[in-house]
Automatic annotation (TrEMBL):
Gene3D superfamilies: 3.30.390.30, FAD/NAD(P)-binding domain. This is Glutathione-disulfide reductase. One of its GO terms (molecular function) is glutathione-disulfide reductase (NADPH) activity. Disulfide bonds join C43-C48. The gene is gorA. It holds the Pfam family Pyr_redox_dim. One of its GO terms (cellular component) is cytosol. Its EC number is 1.8.1.7. The lineage of its organism: Bacteria, Pseudomonadati, Pseudomonadota, Alphaproteobacteria, Rhodobacterales. Belongs to the class-I pyridine nucleotide-disulfide oxidoreductase family.
Length: 463
């Protein structure tokens, strides 16, 4: 049977674009790709990239404060212009989008700038009504912000809206305590917005190492975020040009803008999955095996739509592994077990790889090497900001199970720590490494004795 394409990719985000480009350029496949919005997907257009640029923009006040501590007595951050920043941001995103498009076009991928839906196990229907057939179909449609089902929540923004605001709000409420709420609380407070963050739990960033979470929680307040723990909105209503919010403790307050950062759902709506036998998980994510293959042999899925590890580099690796396996006869699976990540807060980021202390303890005894200190650079300037470095070590095998860093440029540090940890390095190998002095990172190779040994909980592995 002949097909219009060897591969048709639905979704022009990081995972889809990588798969399409490699299949066409390295393996000579005839590839089509459909994208309903801007090429580049969440990460490039409305996520990681513009967010990180906003983080840089938001640190002027902290930098000026630090410089005053170094003798630049009149250092000031000055006045921030959202209009100027936004124009530059738009130009940068357009530049990146063009690079993505050029890469696809050089590889010979046929791009369809429209929505596509499945119309069978080898069939795609485009929004203009055209039908295309493909030997293989890759679903890479990503995720969409999830709301929590309270009255009036349609008045709130979601993260997509933050990058296209006409002006900065005077007073904003951010709902949630995850990646997006914490990063944008840091950004908005840094840009001078009166920022309130309401989170239902007792420390932000659930799922991360508890000690690091506590430091992140303290830091949010220290940078001027009015962080309200144990609080959730129950209703939103219009109040003039603003929004009146009722919270679950009965209080009411008005804001110029509300951002719901309450998680993301896999984006499968209207995808035509009912025309196939593809199975979904309970949360609506596409069920795939370790080869990113659905239960329909011709249909694969990668990235956030499969809800495995929802990070751009993971989607890219999944997309690349899929084409190596299917088109390059080089079977390659993705190891999702040791994936580093970072939350871009300021002044200190939270970065992590491997097990948290709580996870390591749940699996058996663990030696905790942890140090909390004021780093030279900010301490000299008069700041109380604390850094934390933590290694979790298996006392029997000496293997480093996890590393958690709360500090300046922690994301940059964890990238390097992830290499030995992914290779199964032991604490002795960390210790054998000579320190780079004076750095904060040298603590990772100079922590000689454990801060504590946690014995195995009854019923878990080691005694
Ligand atoms: P997260 O899953 O990280 O956080 C969602 C937050 O919303 C949690 O604090 C959660 O609380 C809260 N929440 C969920 N449901 C409710 C509810 N019904 N009422 C009140 N609060 C609720 O999602 P984000 O939206 O912050 O980010 C989505 C994903 O995007 C992340 O998981 C990550 O994969 C990716 N991302 C990665 C970044 C990075 O790598 N730096 C940056 C930004 C996003 P609780 O914890 O109590 O469940």
């Amino acid at each position: 049977m002949s097909f219009d394409y060897d591969l048709f990719v639905i979704g022009g985000g990081s995972g889809g674009v990588r798969a399409a480009r490699i299949a066409a350029s390295e393996y000579g496949a005839k590839v089509g790709l459909a994208e309903e919005s801007r090429m580049g997907g969440t990460c490039v257009i409305r996520g990681c990239v513009p967010k990180k640029l906003m983080i840089f923009a938001a640190q002027a006040g902290l930098m000026a404060e630090e410089m005053r501590g170094y003798g630049w007595c009149d250092a000031q951050s000055g006045t921030f212009s959202w209009e100027v920043f936004r124009e530059k941001l738009d130009a940068e995103l357009t530049r990146l989008e063009l690079i993505y498009r050029a890469g696809l076009s050089r590889a010979g991928v046929e791009v369809h700038d429209q929505r596509a839906r499945l119309a069978g196990h080898h069939e795609i229907e485009l929004a203009d009504g055209t039908r295309k057939s493909a030997r293989h179909i890759l679903i890479a449609t990503g995720g969409r912000p999830a709301l929590i089902g309270i009255p009036g929540e349609e008045l709130a923004m979601v993260s997509d809206d933050l990058f296209v605001m006409d002006r900065l709000p005077g007073r904003a409420l951010l709902v949630g305590g995850g990646f997006i709420a914490c990063e944008f609380a840091t950004i908005l407070a840094g840009l001078g917005v009166d920022t309130v963050q309401a989170y239902r739990g007792d420390a932000v960033l659930r799922g991360f190492d508890r000690e690091a979470r506590d430091l992140a929680t303290l830091q949010l307040s220290a940078v001027g975020v009015d962080l309200r723990l144990g609080l959730t909105p129950v209703a939103l209503e219009r109040a003039g040009a603003g929004i009146r919010v009722t919270f679950d403790d009965g209080t009411r307050e008005e804001f110029d803008a509300v951002l719901m950062a309450t998680g993301r759902d896999p984006y499968t709506k209207g995808l035509g999955l009912e025309t196939t036998e593809v199975r979904l998980k309970r949360n609506g994510a596409i069920e795939v095996d370790e080869w990113s293959q659905t239960c329909v042999p011709s249909i694969f899925a990668v990235g956030d739509v499969t809800d495995r590890v929802n990070l751009t580099p993971v989607a890219i690796r999944e997309g690349h592994s899929f084409v190596d396996t299917v088109f390059g006869a080089r079977p390659r699976k993705v190891d999702h077990s040791v994936v580093a990540s970072a939350v871009y807060l300021r002044p200190h980021e939270l970065a992590t790889v491997g097990l948290t202390e709580e996870e390591a303890h749940a699996r058996g005894a663990v030696d905790v090497y942890s140090t909390v200190f004021r780093p030279m650079r900010s301490m000299f300037a008069g700041s109380d900001a604390k850094v934390m470095m933590k290694l979790l070590v298996d006392p029997v095998t000496d293997k480093v199970l996890g590393c958690h860093i709360f500090g300046p440029e922690a994301g940059e540090m964890i990238q390097l720590a992830a290499i030995p940890i992914g290779m199964g390095a032991t604490k002795a190998q960390f210790d054998a490494t000579i320190a780079v002095h004076p750095t904060a990172a040298e603590e990772l190779v100079t922590m000689r004795s454990p801060s504590r040994r946690l014995q195995a909980l009854s019923g878990t592995g080691l005694a």
